[in-house]
Structure formats: structure tokens, C-alpha cells
Queue: 3 jobs
Job 1
Amino acid sequence: MSNPVYLALDLPQLDAAKALAERVRAHIGGIKLGLEFFCAHGHHGVHEIAHLGLPIFLDLKLHDIPNTVAGAMQAIHVLEPAIVTVHASGGRAMMEDAKAAAGNGTRVVAVTMLTSMDDRDLVQTGVAGKAHDHVLRLAELAQAAGLDGIVCSGHEVAAVHRQWKDGFFVVPGLRMADNGIGDQKRVVTPRRARDDGASVLVVGRPINRADDPVAAARAIEATL
Ligand SMILES: O=C(O)c1cc(=O)[nH]c(=O)n1[C@@H]1O[C@H](COP(=O)(O)O)[C@@H](O)[C@H]1O
């Protein structure tokens, strides 16, 4: 089985990002390039990282009217990303149009509820109820819209997997026992997320900020 760990290359400098990806390359299955990276380095940066030969997950978390999101999807066709994110709260029509505009080889997955939020944060956004129910509801909407899967925390992935048997599930907010939690609120270990049905494990700071990123990536790999 291929390594499910995607390294979140959340670094502002392109050279440093490239160097880190090269160092840990043997211990990861793909690379996630997010807003920080894409805003700083754009298409050029994606091409530079793609030279490493690992699948690219372009985490743009698109959230706009359907026409605009479809246009953005078309604009990134040329980059041939393996995975792209949109926000499920953008609604069914937006997700349908995003999927229709994506290239054939690209999985479109919907972010349900950010792992940096808990039940209290959810209520503050005007959504009554629990994170768990909110994630399951948005997963159902994403499935109905024809997306490939969702992004959720390790707290929900087992339940989502029961509800959507052949879905593709991306789980960030992963921490080993000795890692700091930072701004994340719904965290589990990489092993638990995988056992509960995650298809992709997104790991950033536990590798990026480690004193020895290669050792950190190896340690995570060894638990899987
Ligand atoms: O879509 C994501 O990848 C994502 C969704 C989510 O709910 N939470 C979340 O942390 N992420 C991303 O996953 C990565 C997590 O980074 P670390 O907390 O440093 O491991 C970051 O790049 C986030 O942008």
C-alpha cells in the first residue's frame, strides 16, 4: 500500500520548501500545497515542487459562487493536481460545478468543518449542534453533489466512512503524543486516523517544525 502521508508544505520560502520536500521524500506519499504556498509562489511554485515526482494536493479551499469556483478550477487544470479542495458550505451547486470543471485525474474533496474549530466555534458561526453532526451532514451534501470525498477530522472519519463506503477521506489535524497541538482543536494520531478509514493523512508542523524532519517523518511512517 502506498504511503498515505501528504506533507503540508506550509513554508513561505520556495527554496526551503523544496529542500524540505526533497529531504523527506522517501517517507511521504504526496505533497500538499496550500494557500500560503500558492499565494506566494503560484503556478511556478507548483511546477517546481511537482518536479519531485510526488502527487500534488492543491489545497485552495475554494469558496465562492459556482461560476467563479468553476473558473478557478479551469485555471488550475494545467497543474494536473491529484487532489483539490473546495468548501462544502459553498453549497451543492458550487460543488457540482467545481467537479464538472476539474480535470479527469483530479479528485475534488470538500472541506466540512475545519479541524481548528470545536463545537463552541461552530455555534459562533450560527450553526446549532455538534461538530460531528455538522460534518456528517456536509459529507452527505458533498456526496450528493458528486464529489470524490471530504476533508474532516479524525474524530468524525469513522462515522463518515460508515455513511459513504467508497468515499475518499482526507484527514488533517494529526499529532503524535509528543507534538504540540498549536491552533488545531480536533486532533488524533496518524495511526488512529488511518485505522478509522482516512485515505490521506495531512501532516504539517509535526514534520516541518521538527528539529529533525526526516526522523519525524520516519517515526510517523513507522506507526502506520
Ligand atoms: O484542507 C486541509 O488540508 C485542512 C483542513 C482542516 O480542516 N484543517 C487543516 O489543518 N487543514 C490543513 O492541514 C494542514 C495541517 O497542518 P499542521 O497542523 O501543521 O499539521 C494545514 O496545511 C491546514 O491548512
Note: The pocket of orotidine-5'-monophosphate is lined by residues 8, 10, 34, 59, 85, 111, 114-115, 151, 172-173, 182, 184, 202-206 (CB under 6 Å).
Job 2
Amino acid sequence: MTTDFGGVQKDVSILIERSNGSQHQALVTTVEQPNTVNCEWFEHDDIKGKGVSLNMVFNLNPHLRPQNFKPQNIKSEADNLSRKSVMISSGSRLKKENKVPTMAVRREVPSVSSRSESRLPTAKSSSSSKVRRTEVYAKKEPTVRNIDKIQNERIERRENQAKQRHVRDQVKAKHDVNDSQWEFAEMIEDWRDDNPAHPPHHKRMNYKINVCVRKRPLNKKETKNKETDVVTRSGEILYVHQPMTKVDLTKYLENLAFRFDYVFDLDDDNRKVYEYTAKPLVESIFKGTRATCFAYGQTGSGKTHTMGGEFSGKNQNCANGIYAFAAEDVFKKLRQPVYSHLQLTVSFFEIYANKVFDLLNNSQRLRILEDKQGKIRTVGLVDQVVNTVDDVISVLREGSRCRTSGQTSANSNSSRSHAVFQLSLVAPGRKTHEDRTHGMFSLIDLAGNERGADTMSSDRITRQEGADINKSLLALKECIRAMGKDALHVPFRGSTLTKVLRDSFIGEDSKTCMIATLSPGFSSCENTINTLRYLTSISYVQIIQLALDMPIA
Ligand SMILES: Nc1ncnc2c1ncn2[C@@H]1O[C@H](COP(=O)(O)OP(=O)(O)OP(=O)(O)O)[C@@H](O)[C@H]1O
């Protein structure tokens, strides 16, 4: 059965009673079956609203009653409905007054002390109520506005966090990366998707200084820590994705690009590395010149693996390193009748803390002397004649056993010395060693370029080792830069390493190659960049700073 609302309808002015007993006029906004009347009024520059029972309206406004109306006790109903009264929300007319739109705008209805404080919205003012409500909202106290703002920001932040968590979980499931690196891993992945790698040019170089780079796979420790690989190769360009964080904690990548003579792939083995680096130099020593091949890189990046042979646990296979491959090629060439007057001898020594030790003579300490002409002699160095590759391999085994090693943060069996393996072509029967030496190939496994962390080590010996290594690497850089000049212009006296290699830097025909080895993990990024910067300073290696989203050139 539908209720008869009598004269009570939308936009009609009615007298209402508040819970504190005060009475004032209000404007009917809606009537609801079976017997509720919703109304609004102005109070303290705000629009308030409330639902009142039809009985109460009829009792207070007798002129609006229908003809068959029977008066009832309205006291309890007034109390009941007044508890539901609420403030009108920011600028919107409430559909049901007992529903509050948001927490931020909820406020208790202030008590009205007198009728004069409340003003009745007229039918005219109701038609433009939208405009007025906006004005009213603008007049809201700043504190309330701030609470609204904070609330909205919090909701937005939580939504963003939830989104990020979702992306992170997806990325982590996809790449299985470290918790603190997943955003960078995703950025690097995106970068690789946008910049597909080019194949290398497969051209073997024969320049005076040849600089190549080899990155090793992530090792056991890095894999266990779920490290991200931050090094990408494309053709002859090597990219290092340096993780960066802005002051506002936004993460981004700095993509550094370096161009080399050759960049090896992860699956390129020692044989391939040899063919693109040391092999062309074997030819040159038969022409009577000096050649050098250096392995340079952070400790644990694979220098000894590349030069001396692959490791299986702590055992090294000396037959598949660059030392053995070079000896193999020298023997092949020696078989040619034109070189029948030549013989191959090998020496193997290490330079540790600026002192030289003979690895083929129980690490006997050797003296380095300079004669009147400035020539350097390593007094007492064993020069062993070898006739087969097997001879060379057994020499290498003996020497490697004697090499000084220690433990660094990156390699538990770190070589703390520069190891120098020399293949000399000699013509027996000549008087002096100088006369006898036709050509010499020095292959050098440099000590790990020290990280600040190791140089700052609290252990005095490690600290001193680090300082010596760094000093000799700086001297080496200066000598390589001066390579090909005469003895006066090559600063070889800067370290024992450069002294013993003096003749290799002098003369127009001398040639060198540098194999830089890299650890590709996130935690080695700084060292990797340092290694690459060292290379840029010795050669024509180009360094290109890329804008964040610049495509590969
Ligand atoms: N290209 C590679 N492929 C697979 N494993 C490698 C590679 N390069 C290096 N490794 C492994 O990494 C570990 C460290 O290598 P290595 O000892 O050659 O480093 P290093 O640069 O000579 O270090 P240090 O300067 O401390 O002597 C070894 O266990 C080695 O087997």
C-alpha cells in the first residue's frame, strides 16, 4: 500500500525538529516510501541534510497533512532518525542520508543553537545548488582538504605499490633475480629487447695494439646470489648497464658503450680467443720482433683461465690456454726448413711486490740489472729448451704450482702476482743471449686489478699487494701508450714489470694485444667500468656515453 504524503513533496519548505530539540525550516529534497522525507538546510556555510519521518513532518506542519491523517506520538521517532542525520558530502546531494560517501568528509552535525543560524535553501537556490556546493567545498577548512588529499595520495600509493609488487613477482618468476636488483633486471631486459644484438665482423686484426674483451659467465657465487648480468655485447660494442638511483630514489640505467677490436661471446672458448688475439703475433716473432699479450681484468674475471687453461675445480688444464696454443703454433712454424736454425726456449717467472721469482727454479729470487746501454738483464733466469708441446705443458704445470696466490673478495685462489711466460726463438751458437734471441713472445697474466675494497683492506699485506699491483698497472699503461718509440721515450723504469718487458715496448715493429676479462655480475659493475676505462686510455678504444633510450649505433 502506498503512503499518502499529503502536501509534502520535493522543494516544499517544512519545519523540522533536531535531536537537541531545536526547530527550523528545511527544504524537502526527496520523499521515500513508505514514510521518510529527506530534507536539506544551510548551516554555518555548509549544506546539511537529514531524513525525518512523515509522522513528524505532519505533526510539525499540520497544513501539509492529508485529510485522513491520525496524529501519533513522534518523540521516539525523532530521536531515532536524528541519530542517522549526517552532513551532506562535499558538493553532492545525499541520496540516503544514513550513508556516508567517504571517511574523509564525515563529520558530526554540529548542534544548532537557534533557528536564525540555519538558512533555508529556496527552490531557486536549489536549482543552482551545484554551483553553490562547489563554492561551499572550496570554503572547506584547509585541514579537511589536506586530510582528503592525504587520503587520496595514500590510496594512489597503495595501488602503485600493489602494481609494483605484481610486476616484481612476475619479473622474479621470469628471471629468478635478486630481490634488490629486479627493477634493474627488468630495465636491462627491456633495453635488450629494444636493441637486438648485431653479430661480430669476424675480422682478425693485425694492428700494433689490439684490444679485445671477454666476459665470463656468472660464476657459482653470483648465480647463488641471483645476480643480474649487466654486460651486453653487440658486434664490437660492449654495453655496461650501470644501475643508478636518483635523489628521489627513482632507479634508472646509465648505458655505457665501448667499442673494441673484438668482443667475445659467452660461448667463445680459449681457442677462439687465442685466434683473434695472440695468434697473429706468433707470425711477427719469426720476423725477429718482440710481441706481448696481456690478460688484464678484475680479480676472478678469468685471466688465468684464458692464459693458462681452463679450470676444473682447482686443477688447471694447461693444454688449452693461450700459452700452450701459442707454443703449438710456434712449433708448427719451426718445422719449416727456413727456420731450421732456430730453437724454442721458454722461461716462466712471476713479479710479486716488485720482486722477480723464477717459477721454473723453485721460486728462486732473481735480480734485475740495467747495463750501461740501459738494457735490462734478469740475472739467473732459467731458459729451458723445449721440443714439443708436451714439454711446454709440463713446464707450465711446474710453474703454475709455484705461483703466489691469495684470497680476495672475488676469488678464493687469486693470483697476487704478474706471471710472465716467454717463448724465445733462439739461434744456438751465437755468443751473447742478445745475439742468440731472434724473436720473443711474452705472454703475461697480470695480477687482478685491485678494487678499492681490497686496497683498503685492513690486512697490511693485502693492502701492500694491492698498492704494488696498481702502481705497476699504471706504469704499464704509460709504456703501452708510448709503444713503438725509442728507449728514451718509454717510461719503463716505473715498475719492475715494465722494466723486464722494456724491449717489448721499444721499436717500431713491436706489437701487443690486450685481452680484458670481465665479471658480468651486478656486484662487479664498478670494476667492470674501471677495467674498460683503463683500456680506453691505452688504445683507440672508443667510449660512447649513451643517452638513456638511445638505440645502438
Ligand atoms: N670464460 C670462462 N668460462 C668459464 N669459467 C671461467 C671463465 N673465466 C673464468 N672462469 C672461472 O672463474 C674462476 C676465476 O678465474 P681465474 O682464476 O682465471 O680469474 P683471474 O682473473 O685469474 O683471477 P685472479 O686475478 O684473482 O687470479 C675460475 O674458477 C675459472 O674457472
Note: Residues 142-175 form the longest helix (34 residues).
Job 3
Amino acid sequence: MTPAPIAVALDAPDLETAARWASLVTPHVSTVKVGLELYLRYGPDVIASVRGASGVRVFLDLKLHDIPNTVSGAARAVARLRPAILTVHAGGGPAMIRAAVEAAPHTAIAAVTVLTSLDEADLERIGLRGPADDAVRRLAALSVEAGATALVCSPHEVSAVRREVGDGITLITPGVRPAGAAVQDQARVATPEQALADGADLLVIGRPITGSPDPGAAAAAIAASLRRAS
Ligand SMILES: O=c1ccn([C@@H]2O[C@H](COP(=O)(O)O)[C@@H](O)[C@H]2O)c(=O)[nH]1
């Protein structure tokens, strides 16, 4: 069976837990995601640990955001780990995004548009007035022009972003919650089925899977539900 287009966020406090979650979910999902918590604690070795024997695709979610020269060096430093995807913040601007793209030619650079934890009141307070859609579409367009081949946005904006950038760009949506699951610190959320129907290529799902007593079964259930819906 083809693994579901899900990246499981391995936001674990220790490497053993992350590696265990990775091995439990790998039969059901296409990708595992390493974020700041694990990478800052364990460094590059974490990639081999979660990749394990299965060789699952690893998404390195470091959300780089600095001047172009610094991001270029950081992207070059992690490119040797061959992550399938590496994130940078779109707000770093086109020169910074291009620097990451050029420094990591074998990795898809995904530009994070507007964090899924922000609601419209938050956006207004940080100076992004108007609907999230406007800022997300603007950041998506400039990121693609700068060479990003993937974008991170919430499921709320994914159809508008698809219209903006067309096919051929990988759209990645965190902020995904199965019906009835706790929203926690996310703000702009939708179900896995809705996110996929609206045009997402890869769904990032963390706690609804890893917080379950059986992460393998939770991943399998979401994967089965996506298959039924498609
Ligand atoms: O806008 C963004 C960008 C990245 N993330 C990351 O995705 C996961 C979501 O985890 P859940 O447990 O499903 O909430 C997490 O690793 C974030 O760092 C995001 O949520 N929003």
C-alpha cells in the first residue's frame, strides 16, 4: 500500500522516543519531520536515527531566518544530511530564500508563509493587516520567484495558494486535526480530508498521532481515512 502523504512531526523530548515513533509510523506515512526541539538537542545525528533502516524521507523543519550569507552557510551545513525538505521563513525575503536554494541543491526548500498558530488578531498585532490569505499569497509568490519548490501554509489558505502558484509546487500544511481532536496551540486548522481535498500535497501531523497511546495505529487510521476520502 502506498504510504499516505503525511509528515509526522517527531516533536519528542528524547532521541529514543523519536526513533520509536518513526519506526511505528513509517509503514503508514511517506515522511517524518525533525524540528527544532530534536535538532537542537541532538544535532545532525538525529537524522540517521529517525531515518532508521526503512530510509523514510526526512523533512528537516529548522525554519531558517537570517541574512542571506548566514542562511546559505546553515543550509550548506545541513544539505550533507540529504533531508528531502528543509524549511526557511518566507519573511526572510527573496535573497535569503535564493541563498538556501543554491546552498542545498538536492533538497526541496520549503518557505513557511504565516505560522499556523497565528490568528487574525495576532497578524494585526505584528503588522499584517487583513485576512491571512493576503499575506500568505504574497509570501508564497515571492518565495516561488526566489526558487522555493515547496511552501508551508495552513489548510485555510491552501486552495488560494494553489491558484496563486499553480501546479508543480509542493504545498505542505501543518494545522491538521482529525475531526474532534484538540486544536492545542494551532489557530488555522482543518481536517486531513479537507486539507487534501483543498490541494495540499503533504499534511504535517504531530500530536494527534504522537500523543496517542499507539502512534502506529493512529497514523494507520488517518491514512485509511484519507484513502476512503480520495
Ligand atoms: O506554520 C507552521 C509551521 C510548522 N509547524 C510545525 O508542524 C508541527 C505541527 O505539530 P502538531 O503537533 O500537529 O500541532 C510542529 O512540529 C510545528 O513546529 C506548524 O505547526 N505550523
Note: Residues 4-229 form a domain with the TIM Barrel fold (CATH 3.20.20.70).
